[in-house]
Write a structure and sequence with these properties.
The protein is an alpha+beta fold. It folds into two domains: 51-179, no CATH class; 192-345 and 355-371, P-loop containing nucleotide triphosphate hydrolases (Rossmann fold), CATH 3.40.50. It has helices spanning 35-46, 51-60, 73-85, 203-213, 217-226, 266-278, 297-314, 325-335, 363-371; strands at 5-10, 13-18, 24-29, 101-104, 116-131, 137-146, 156-163, 166-171, 193-196, 233-239, 247-252, 258-260, 285-288, 317-322, 344-352, 355-361. A hairpin with a 2-residue loop joins strand 1 and strand 2 (13-18). Helix 5 packs antiparallel against helix 6, helix 7 crosses helix 8 (325-335) and helix 8 crosses helix 9 (363-371).
Length: 377
């Protein structure tokens, strides 16, 4: 679990420090203040810089397409560098460590081994030899990382991921898509996480997430959550002839018919997506972009209650973004309930002359702001 957060040179966050975090964290702010960017950064941290995850983030923003990878090494390298440059604050491929991305915890003692680092590097592939026991020699390819100041004309460009004293290099002259299935990040343990974007998890992933918890206690968690919208919910299932064509259906207690969940509105489908994601990230991170999306204000408090309970039961740290006063009010109401034992806070982001600044509000401060109708979104 993250007790603090440090992000450097990731998208519009040149340097952001959040000194303390809780189990449930709500991030507020105007457009383009970095709310979604923080969620992305946490997903990169949770997966220890997995390139498959990074490619997914780039695709969602329209910054990477396999169709743009080109047919020769030069165009492939240009396409890869252009796509990966989108991750950096200046969107330029620079090679100094100071201009690289760092995501992780704030550590006053300077021990940042757990943090994830992303940067472009210059390198050369050189043949080297090694003597064996029987006096023969073995030739092998040695990859040499060059200093940024070295101006070798025959250098190659790579994308480096490092954490916990481990590092991996993605050559930019190979199609990024070729690494999606074969690249295994740094072979370090990763944390479970689910990132719910504003367009929801797609139908295929929802079905897979349901399969993971079908016929377990967690399936009942999902049913109970759907009762927030439809109290007669009895069962749900996913049906179809293939993974890509599976559809969520619902059985209500007052009828023998099975209904497509899509016919019941955006709200119940949004809740399904959130709860399926939640019960699939034990001891990990749930990341929700624009919490209020598709949800009437009258159901948001009930959903927060479910999230707080399951976050405690499954040991999950939750980060959600919002620009809605109703969402903040419902969050504050659940956070300050007398029987609530889960810690939570609100983090407001502001863009001040191009620099993103954060302000933290404790449960008590949120209570005061709500009582006095002070707008803090």
């Amino acid at each position: 679990m993250l007790d603090s957060l440090y992000i450097k040179n990731y998208r519009n966050l040149e340097e952001l420090k959040i000194q303390s975090l809780c189990q449930v964290n709500l991030i507020a702010g105007k457009n383009n203040t970095g709310k979604s960017t923080i969620l992305e950064a946490i997903s990169i941290y949770a997966t220890r810089g997995s390139l498959a995850n990074i490619f997914g983030l780039l695709e969602q923003r329209g910054e990477y397409s396999r169709r743009n990878e080109g047919e020769n090494l030069t165009s492939i390298e240009e396409s890869s560098v252009q796509s990966l440059s989108s991750l950096f604050s200046n969107r330029i491929a620079r090679f100094s460590k100071e201009e690289g991305i760092c995501i992780g915890k704030i550590n006053a003692e300077g021990n940042t081994d757990e943090n994830v680092y992303l940067q472009f590097v210059k390198y050369q592939d050189k043949m080297d030899t090694d003597a064996t026991l029987n006096n023969s020699t073995t030739r092998y390819l040695k990859r040499v990382i060059l200093e940024d100041s070295e101006n070798s004309e025959d250098h190659l460009i790579g994308f480096s991921v490092s954490s916990n004293n481990s590092s991996a290099l993605q050559p930019c002259n190979r199609p990024l898509s070729s690494y999606i299935s074969s690249y295994s990040s740094l072979n370090l343990p990763i944390d479970q996480h689910q990132l719910i974007g504003t367009r929801n998890i797609d139908r295929e992933i929802n079905g897979t997430l349901f399969d993971n918890i079908a016929l377990s206690e967690k399936e009942q968690y999902v049913v109970e959550a759907l009762k927030i919208i439809e109290p007669l919910t009895e069962r749900i299932a996913f049906i179809g002839t293939s993974l890509r064509e599976r559809t969520a259906v619902i059985k209500l207690s007052n009828t023998q018919k099975v209904l497509p969940l899509s016919s019941m509105g955006d709200g119940i489908n949004r809740i399904l997506t959130i709860i399926l994601a939640l019960v699939n990230c034990d001891k990990g991170y749930l990341l929700i972009d624009e919490f209020e999306n598709g949800l009437h204000y009258s159901v948001q408090e009930k959903l927060w209650k479910v999230i707080f309970k399951l976050a405690k039961d499954l040991d999950i740290q939750v980060f959600a973004s919002t620009h809605s006063n109703d969402c903040i009010a419902s969050f504050e109401s659940v956070l300050n309930e007398e029987n609530n034992t889960i810690s939570g806070k609100l983090i407001r982001l502001d863009n001040v002359n191009g620099q993103i600044l954060e302000t933290e509000f404790s449960a008590h401060e949120l209570d005061i702001a709500n009582a006095q109708n002070i707008e803090i979104r």
